[in-house]
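Friendly challenge for the regulars: who can give me the structure tokens for this chain first? No prize, just bragging rights.
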Amino acid sequence: MFTPNTLTETDLLHRILTFHPESAEPLVKYLKIEKEVDLKAPDKHRAAELLISHARKMGGHELANLCRKGEGIPYAELVYDVGKKMKVPDISKINTVEGNEGLILKKALSDAVDKMSPEEREKFLASVGLENRNIPVGPAGAIVVQMLLAQLGAGALSYIALLLTEMLSVALLGRVAAWGALVAVDGMVANAAGVLLGPVGWFATGAWLANDLAGPAYRKTVPFVIHFAALRQLVNQQINLCVVGDGSTGKDSLMRQVFAIQGNVSPVAGATSSVESHQLKSSPMVWVHNLPGFNDPRASVNQRTDDFLHVADAFLVVVDLNRGISDVDIQVVKHITATAPGKPLLICLNKVDLLRPDADITELEQVAKKRLGNYPMLKTAFDPDPRLGQAPLGAHDIFVWICEQLEASGKDVSQLKASGLQ
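First reply, four minutes later:
Bragging rights claimed.
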């Protein structure tokens, strides 16, 4: 089963560079490798590999890197070393990388709070909704972090990550982090960051970090690891669904019926010539991508499409059952499974409302399974002929399938289920 937690650091960064490359800019700036790594290069996977490689080399010392044939230390070891340097409690090599990142985030915020004056801390607590709490005088960063975790629940670590990355970006790079559409930093984060970065928040100049770290390498790798941990938190929340199929099979109609997305419903085959991405207003962490065909004469379009195949969480493949399973349909399924093996894939046998009255639907389904493979299939009619007086068919079942697959892969679909969609 494909799950978010099985993503390698390269795969995770590949997702970021595909959708929101601007949010990865601080990573190259912290390592000072702007000339070596082009985040806007067409080959996103290669750019991700280069960036992680530089981080791994930065984490290892010269002799160790030589023994590793110049590859640097594993990223898990880099995170562990940063944790040890920051004196993070419970940091351990037996923890998962994500687990150690979480411990680092908590310790970084705890250290920041401990260095606040009583007045600064009072303002900070008010900004995050923890005013009037019985917090002891003196170092109490760990207590504040635990209160935040209890108050914010499952989203607490993401909140802490965003707060820290905003602070570090302003402190070390002189500007706020550019998250783009990856996340809308809410008022609570903005208020808290304002306290940390305001005139009274003197430690936001980076002193709280720089004074604790010896050596230029750690002054690069510590903010890198914290920012990367924030990206991981956000990627694990984000959901990417890809709608794929030959021209005029009903992809836009599916998006309208299932996700209330008003796409370009066109009778012209091949009307989708580039990736069309839609962020659901009712569930901002959910993105639906309408992909073009896989054999575009433009190499850049094919590269972009393959990037989306690599980072998708699930696929909805639309075929026109009325005209039969085509060679293009077969190629679409084969290309998806070869490029993104193991990811959930649902085949929508669309336009069943247009079948001849004497058509044997069971036989047509068997033919579809024989030609396309033994994948889950649903009979659908997203845009039925109004002359037939039939209601759209299959949208609810698709929505249920999507939620089940995402939950099985560890995604939080509570917001999606409460969105009012199907």
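The beta strands are 239-245, 276-279, 286-290, 314-320, 345-350, 377-379. The radius of gyration is 25 Å. Your move, everyone else.
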